[in-house]
Inverse folding.
């Protein structure tokens, strides 16, 4: 199975995690939760459960949740009232999930019993940790950075799984939201900066942990609160116990969760993702107005911002581009002839609507610029008089090392071109990105970005990394401060 041939011009989602305890047939709930989080990873998924009579059970599969965890016998083979799951896009280790042993959750058998772990994020010092562990005798089974945590836990002298996890995570740098389980406990942890999301919900007498609130909605669970940055919760039949294994730091939640990664029906910090995206469009209309006839989204992620742009500018909103909903995010063995058809396999222009019109296209981001060029060509071929791009994020000029797969910096268009040069390269009449301050205002910061102490992680736009990416620096990456 090959990745979709036209998705390499988008930042790839990270992963999604889900766990529950105290729910009969927990695997059913985990599968539903993972289905709601499928947008965060489409390569593979896994579920591990525990039943007091038969022990731990697991299933790891390539592909989509709906294709693997709805088949007769799979869920039935995952009994128990406690379980965790993971949907994956490989951001560390081998790309393409070519080995089933890379698919999470991971499992370890310790002196005090077994434990499973699922991780969303990226450990930025995993290479050095892995090297040290191998030198000390550890034998790794996968290429994933997450497996380092299992080995660190195995070498800890603490007496309980939660305490061993604390030991392991104190060695880890970067971004992580984790759900883990023992025979009787469900554990959730967020890194000290809270870069990646994790929420807590309740369903009857049971408890749920998930990457996003939309995964609570699908099973009818009540949202209780977000797991706070630097917090660990241990959930058992005694309730929810909260602890703080790390020193306090100022949170730096990933602002791109608001722009693109999260589902629009989720919310963080009490704020709707949809409303933030709509407000980005409002900011764009104020910052970069243009005289035109129609505002059209590049579906689907550009739609809320296009609605906001239309509302603020007074220019009519229209669905000038239709997305093939059945294209999916994978494409099996495409021929070169089919590949050459490009973005047309996924998107089609409403010619009757577009012809003779001045079109504002609203998209979520520009990475390499190749898809923008193809969409522009389609719009012009359909007879548009003008094409103006408005982008609902600042220029992506730096790679992410916290759980998002981005191209190397020299492949990012904004890393070596000005906005005017990008406009000419894509070949549109005008091109404008929302400013960093405008993005922050849309995300609920009225004063914009505090440049002395940013409220979010925005390293992909600013180059200011809140945690030094030590592994990448060792490989030759030059951070912004050093480059300047």
């Amino acid at each position: 199975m090959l990745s979709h041939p036209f998705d390499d011009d988008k930042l790839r989602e990270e992963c999604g995690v889900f766990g529950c305890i105290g729910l009969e047939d927990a695997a059913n709930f985990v599968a539903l939760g993972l289905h709601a989080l499928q947008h965060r990873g489409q390569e593979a998924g896994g579920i591990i459960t525990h039943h007091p009579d038969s022990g731990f059970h697991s299933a790891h599969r390539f592909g989509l949740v709906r294709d693997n965890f709805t088949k007769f016998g799979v869920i039935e083979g995952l009994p128990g009232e406690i379980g965790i799951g993971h949907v994956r896009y490989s951001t560390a280790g081998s790309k393409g999930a070519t080995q089933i042993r890379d698919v999470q959750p991971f499992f370890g058998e310790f002196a005090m019993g077994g434990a499973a772990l699922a991780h969303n994020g990226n450990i930025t010092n995993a290479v050095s940790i892995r090297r040290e562990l191998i030198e000390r005798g550890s034998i790794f089974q996968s290429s994933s950075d997450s497996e380092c945590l299992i080995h660190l836990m195995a070498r800890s002298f603490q007496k309980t799984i939660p305490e061993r996890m604390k030991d392991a995570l104190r060695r880890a740098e970067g971004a992580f939201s984790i759900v883990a389980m023992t025979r009787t406990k469900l554990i959730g942890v967020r890194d000290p900066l809270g870069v990646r999301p994790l929420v807590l919900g309740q369903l009857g007498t049971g408890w749920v942990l998930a990457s996003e609130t939309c995964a609570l909605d699908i099973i009818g669970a009540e949202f209780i609160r977000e797991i706070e940055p630097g917090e660990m919760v241990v959930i058992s039949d005694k309730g929810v116990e909260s602890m703080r294994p790390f020193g306090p730091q100022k949170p730096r939640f990933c602002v791109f969760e608001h722009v693109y990664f999260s589902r629009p029906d989720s919310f963080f910090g009490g704020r709707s993702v949809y409303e933030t995206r709509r407000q980005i469009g409002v900011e764009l209309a104020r910052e970069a107005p243009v005289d035109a006839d129609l505002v059209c989204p590049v579906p689907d992620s550009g739609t809320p911002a296009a609605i906001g742009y239309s509302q603020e500018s007074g220019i009519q909103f229209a669905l000038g581009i239709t997305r093939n909903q059945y294209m999916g995010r994978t494409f099996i063995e495409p021929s070169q002839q089919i590949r050459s058809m490009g973005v047309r396999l996924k998107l089609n222009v409403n010619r009757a609507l577009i012809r003779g019109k001045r079109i504002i296209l609203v998209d979520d981001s520009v990475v390499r610029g190749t898809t923008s060029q193809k969409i522009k060509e389609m719009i012009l071929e359909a007879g548009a008089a003008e094409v103006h791009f408005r982008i609902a994020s600042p220029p992506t000029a730096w790679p992410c090392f916290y759980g998002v797969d981005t191209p190397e910096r020299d492949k990012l268009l904004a890393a070596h071109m000005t906005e005017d040069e990008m406009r000419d390269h894509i070949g549109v009449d005008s091109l404008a990105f929302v400013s960093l301050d405008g993005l922050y205002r849309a995300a609920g910061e009225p004063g914009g970005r505090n440049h002395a102490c940013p409220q979010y992680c925005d390293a992909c736009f600013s180059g200011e990394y809140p945690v030094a990416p030590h592994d990448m620096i060792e490989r030759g990456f030059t951070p912004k401060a050093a480059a300047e």
